[in-house]
Design a protein that fits this description.
This protein has 127 residues and is mainly alpha-helical. The chain is 84% helix and 0% strand. The chain has one domain. The radius of gyration is 16 Å and the shape is elongated.
């Protein structure tokens, strides 16, 4: 559990650093569209870092499910946000890694659905 909390905290801190970097250092270096894309990556990283914190401090979720959800979300952040960072900061041509961003997004969605499934199972069991 602490490993996932540490990872979530680091991902949150990095999102803040990258957000500040984007707002100050990249403002005049990227086109408005590229900056908007970069900001989307930062937002999704932060949203999901907070989601990871929530999942891993919840006493309503089993350790096994925490690990499954966390794995989906961590890999999702790396693929989704990481691919956008690579395109915008490292000038990696999008045509070479176009499939990575939606794959990361899919993993993030699956993390949310797995969480929903877990809680729905609890609701049904308690009825």
């Amino acid at each position: 559990m602490y490993k996932n909390l540490t990872t979530a905290s680091v991902l949150g801190a990095v999102a803040v650093v990258l957000g500040a970097f984007g707002a100050h250092a990249l403002k005049n270096k990227l086109s408005p569209e590229a900056l908007n894309s970069f900001e989307t990556a930062v937002k999704y990283q932060m949203y999901h870092a907070l989601f990871l914190l929530f999942i891993n401090v919840s006493n309503q979720i089993t350790t096994s499910f925490k690990h499954k959800i966390s794995l989906l979300v961590i890999i999702g952040i790396i693929l989704f946000s990481g691919s956008i960072y690579a395109i915008q900061l490292l000038s990696v041509p999008a045509k070479y890694i176009w499939f990575i961003t939606p794959l990361g997004g899919l993993l993030l969605i699956l993390g949310w659905f797995l969480t929903s499934f877990y809680f729905l199972k609890k609701v049904i069991k308690n009825e």
